């Protein structure tokens, strides 16, 4: 871990030097470098927990991601920002608040007995072989149903549909984590377990194309890679090379193809698999041609494109550059004011309460923030990534930036550490980190919504695993 830390430090120094050559704003550059270097806090720990991994991911979203992307684009970090110095101040204050929340969460020394029992369950090869495939199959089934029945994006909004099957999504990474654990720990029949894991990858690929989303594919790659690291798996070239090639192909071929297929509004569900193949075939499986077509698609969304952090490029990487939404809120804060606290509870309330008590819509907090501050057309449901600091700024201004991130992060990290425990040798904690990594880019209200919907289902899933394990033991004794 120490060697990795030194390599990371050299990389950040190189990016900072490149930004100085590009004429970067000293204040903004210093803030981004400082945030990027705070990854040293979790790296200093010898026993990583879920909170350590999630905090490390947040340093990428709020710091090193902007450095890497803007340097790769050949642009100084302040370009395309309207109020870079003010935004840098809010970013520093907000991430300091996040770090305080992270520090408070470290007071939790031991996980719950529930977490220790799940660690034991997922440490047993027999249990992994018993549960991995059925759990994954259930997750795949519910995601397929989600692609069939949920509302589709049309004309800046969404059609009516049923999105309840999405609550079962955590089953998919849980099954993948268990199967990856079988391979990483070299249980008997490793080749067979590896083949099953590869077949799971193909199912994930098909579901990603049918759902026309990239998250499912990236979640699978992340949970498998994390499992090998956390479980001490020894990489073999026979596994590493195909995995690396597959990941590279996904980036250069499938990502632009998925973006292109989104323009075909009449293509739904499994038909998107064929449509994606047709797009790839029509472009001769040429990454350069696909990229050019993808750029033409992206430039069609004029407001999002011109408001991009890397404009005039069309990389669609804003989720890894949290300085941008902070700037988008800060530039209009004087004229449009804050939104208050009522909006923070709207999404959790819609998640918890039945329809006869509250009118439910497809609009979420990021949309309302984007409409209020004018960086998306009002009425357009685009669900842009706003993030924890920018949403806190939108709610209560500077006071919100100083207080809300610490409160939300402390609550989130404590809950995840209590039910997850340490990552090393723990397939359950690997799953928990992989399935909650998206919280690094979420807003206050959408994080609260997670605890109203997905988190209880994760706890229920863990409880069912424990019950099935005890039932299996009882049958063996009988």
Automatic annotation (TrEMBL):
It comes from the Bacteria. Keywords: Membrane, Transmembrane, Transmembrane helix. The chain crosses the membrane at residues 28-47, 54-74, 86-105, 126-145, 165-184, 191-210, 216-232, 239-261, 393-416, 423-440, 446-468. This is Oligosaccharide repeat unit polymerase. It comes from Sphingomonas jeddahensis.
């Amino acid at each position: 871990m120490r060697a990795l830390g030194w390599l990371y430090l050299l990389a950040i120094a190189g990016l900072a030097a490149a930004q100085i050559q590009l004429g970067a704003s000293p204040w903004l550059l210093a803030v981004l470098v400082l945030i990027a270097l705070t990854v040293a806090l979790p790296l200093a720990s010898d026993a990583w927990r879920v909170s350590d991994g999630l905090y490390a991911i947040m340093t990428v979203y709020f710091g090193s991601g902007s450095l890497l992307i803007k340097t790769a684009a050949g642009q100084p970090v302040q370009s395309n920002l309207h109020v870079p110095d003010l935004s840098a101040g809010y970013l520093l204050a907000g991430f300091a608040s996040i770090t305080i929340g992270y520090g408070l969460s470290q007071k939790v020394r031991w996980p719950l007995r529930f977490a220790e029992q799940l660690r034991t369950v997922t440490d047993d090869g027999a249990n992994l072989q018993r549960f991995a495939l059925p759990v994954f199959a259930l997750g795949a089934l519910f995601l397929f149903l989600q692609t069939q029945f949920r509302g589709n994006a049309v004309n800046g909004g969404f059609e009516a549909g049923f999105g309840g099957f999405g609550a079962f999504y955590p089953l998919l990474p849980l099954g993948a984590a268990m199967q990856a654990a079988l391979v990483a720990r070299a249980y008997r029949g490793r080749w067979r377990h590896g083949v099953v894991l590869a077949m799971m990858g193909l199912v994930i690929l098909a579901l990603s194309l049918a759902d026309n989303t990239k998250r499912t594919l990236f979640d699978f790659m992340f949970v498998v890679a994390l499992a090998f690291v956390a479980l001490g798996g020894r990489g073999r070239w026979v596994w590493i090379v195909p995995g690396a090639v597959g990941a590279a192909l996904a980036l250069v071929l499938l990502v632009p193809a998925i973006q292109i297929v989104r323009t075909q509004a009449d293509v739904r569900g499994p038909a998107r698999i064929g449509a994606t193949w047709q797009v790839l075939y029509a472009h001769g499986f040429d990454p350069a041609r696909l990229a050019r077509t993808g750029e033409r698609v992206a430039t069609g969304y004029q407001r999002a494109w011109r408001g991009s952090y890397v404009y005039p490029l069309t990389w669609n990487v804003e989720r890894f550059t949290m300085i941008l939404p902070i700037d988008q809120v800060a530039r209009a804060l004087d004229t449009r004011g804050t939104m208050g606290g009522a909006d923070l509870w709207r999404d959790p309330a819609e998640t918890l309460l039945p329809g006869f008590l509250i009118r439910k819509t497809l609009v979420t907090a990021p949309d309302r923030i984007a409409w209020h501050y004018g960086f998306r057309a009002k009425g357009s449901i685009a669900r842009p990534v706003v993030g924890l600091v920018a949403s806190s700024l939108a709610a209560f201004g500077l006071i919100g930036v100083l207080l809300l991130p610490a409160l939300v992060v402390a609550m989130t990290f404590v809950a995840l550490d209590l039910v997850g425990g340490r990552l090393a040798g723990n397939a359950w904690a690997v799953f928990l980190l992989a399935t909650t990594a998206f919280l690094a880019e979420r807003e206050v209200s959408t994080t609260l919504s997670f605890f109203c919907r997905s988190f209880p289902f994760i706890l229920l899933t863990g409880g069912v695993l424990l019950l099935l394990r005890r039932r299996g033991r009882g049958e063996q004794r009988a």
